[in-house]
Here is the input.
Amino acid sequence: MGDILAHESELLGLVKEFLDFAEFEDTLKTFSKECKIKGKPLSKSACGSLRDSKSSIIQKDLLAAFDSGDQKVFFDLWEGHIPSSIRAGDSLAQKLEFYLHIHFAIYLLKHSTGRPDKEELDERISYFKTYLETKGAALSQTTEFLPFYALPFVPNPMVHPSFKELFQDPWTPELKLKLERFLGLIFKASNTPKLLTLYKENGQSNKEVLQQLHQQLVEAERRSMTYLKRYNKIQADYHNLIGVTAELVDSLEATVSGKMITPEYLQSVCVRLFSNQMRQSLARSVDFTRPGTVRLCARVCPQVRKLKDVPLLPSLDYEKLKKDLILGSDRLKAFLLQALRWRLTTSHPGEQRETVLQAYISNDLLDCHSHSQRSVLQLLHSKSEVVRQYMARLVNAFASLAEGRRYLAQNTKVLRMLEERLKEEDKDVITRENVLGALQKFSLRRPLQTAMIQDGLIFWLIDVLEEPDCLSDYTLEYSVALLMNLCLRSTGKNMCAKVAGLVLKVLSDLLGHENREIQPYVNGALYSILSIPSIREEARAMGMEDILCCFIKEGNAEMIRQIEFIIKQLHSEELLDGVLESDDDEDEDDEEDYDTMEADLDKDELIQPQLGELSGEKLLTTEYLGIMTNTGKVRRKGAAGVQWGGPEPLCRPITPGGHRTGYPA
Here is the structure.
């Protein structure tokens, strides 16, 4: 209460000033009378009075300069007291200023009793001409003002029919009246009461803070949900594995005691404790080529035996499929793209998945070999966000498989369309993630690496990675991995050398990012680009060694070893360190031949079938069943599953999926 009494006079003065400004005359009288009866001190707003007085003086000076033709004084006051935002952005102010310049340009012609002073007249005309060429140029396309651009070049404007109106008696008084009204509006707006100013400033500030906090909250909730899903999955797998281990240990102890363990008992353990996902994981991890493995698995868990003999999926009518993908409704297109993707992502690795993919490729499902203007690939630019996203997911699924990458790489238009979609997509995060994922997998192939480097994708990646906290985990991880793959090429390193300072700053900032999954790719990119002497010199100048040493103190053993290699590279004096002679040989394709189908491909589905609506495999086999469109699969020599575990940073192209599953780097 004491604080209120201390500032009561000032607060009441603010209320009075606002009522006066808003012209609440009766309310103001009642308010003043009540303050007087209660003995409340009612201070006058000295600030408001001072502003009113100052505004009045400026208006009088402007009008006086207008009447006397004092061009310099007028425009000094005009530019000093009329806000530039109004002069540049308000059409009324621009038109008035144009006519004011005409007024001063012809002032001597209208008000001189004899022949006007030629030197002063030329100076005014020159001033007007300069205005027309600079600030007044914006109105040159307006029909109303177009004739006046010839005024400086007319010898005697007074007799020219186009300017006859300017020299008639009413023109100057009408212009002055417009000026008075304009000044009245401007200075009334500038005399905003302090109460309103305080409200606007605090309200706007609070609004911006709330928007920032809301954005941070949404991002935090999104990350929280992602981490929660990961935690729940890990926790469930952990409990399952603990249960399996306990059961099997008990079984072993029982055999030591002489008790017989029947196959039926082991089968019940598998059925009770293994989730479907764990059974598939087990099936993928078991080497069926080893003698006795299948027999053992068949005895322990018949579910594993079933995975070995998976039937092929039915053939499809691909001509009808592609026709509906191009001409069908957006909803039908989305369901078809989803079903085709699910065929790839949910099929069992091995013969079943290879047959599905080979059927897609042999029937040119994505129209990669088509020269028609309307093709399935054009769905990447569909007006429907759902269709764009589902097309991007399907392309990413193709790119997740080595044969799929070969198919997509045969035509560079696929790469160009993906690059264009990546740079233009700003509405849908998942679409952008899948496009980026596909491009990252493309970077396993040399010709596509070269094309991406030449298209300036490195500069786009650096620009995006300047603000890593604004990116999803997937976008961040795949952006850094793509950047590393491109930096492994000498042309990519030379691109980085053009913006060495920025690249080094971005990579050094990423070293300390909370997402530890990106560390191998950041280290690999740094190690690679530091083979360029100019980049090493820039890194030394910015104190890169001190930055790296900070992370040595905090990192784990693997991270420390990699950073030590980077520091060693930093001190290297070789002109080219580690660049192979075949670095830019397009004929040599050093792609690591492996498949990396990610669970993220099927996350957060946007569409769900309504009652009676077909989707997934049921939609394909009901409406698009074909005859013998499944072709023989191509046998490929798979890469040896040797996990990268050396001390050096990554020095071969890799995808995050391949790195996590232990494929060679």
Q: What stands out?
A: Confidence is low (pLDDT under 50) at residues 280-308, 577-582, 587-591, 637-645. The CA atoms of residues 51 and 190 lie 9 Å apart. The radius of gyration is 38 Å. The chain has 33 helices and no strands.
